Amino acid sequence: MGDVTAAAVDSPQKAWSGPWIIAVTGMAREAAGIEQDGVKAVVSGGDQTRLVERFEAALLALGETRPAGVMSIGLGGGLDPTLRPGDAVLAEAVLAGGRTLRTDPAWTLRIKTVLPNPRLGLIAGQDAPVTDPQGRREIFQSTGALCVDMESHTAGRLAEANGLPFAAVRFISDGAERRLPKAALAGLRPDGGVSVAAVIAALALNPFELPGLIRTGIEAEAGFKALFGGCGRLGPALGFGDV
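Now predict its structure.
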């Protein structure tokens, strides 16, 4: 099964009798705010192979409780220059390389009615972070996607392969014209946590990145706040039980 965290193989909470969904995200902090009744969070830690392994482990952990759907949810990088940190992007479809993976219309409509003013459109999935404004402009101009993340395309493929409804919602953590400092990316651990020591070491090599790192942290907090508030609004099974 490869690298599987203990959290990925815990048995589901027995008290919850409603539908379960698998929520796919990138970081442990996202997962901590996403998990609630009916939600099994799977963390990629920035690695697509690891994400697939942990998704399969989550299916095994749920056992006979077959998941009702798959949602990609977490932070995302803005491609549309009008988006600001904290804005929600709700996917009509996710672009996965040369493919377009459609989201479930009923579930997406339910999310749209619950979240405050989400932007409805395309999300671009990428295997690697898009850190510079020029790269983001190119994706926006060529696809029209509103934001980009590193999990939605894999989550959509996994949902399709397992015959499960799919939804994707991302909360902007950095705008289209932001350049992400290398130090901001250096600390991501395989378990989705953040190594402060690795961030400090990267910053020591490039101390001029400090202002950008501080700004990135402030804007990411706006994304986290919106993400956690949105999960609270969606409630158990992230709104699937109301579809």
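The longest strand covers residues 69-78.
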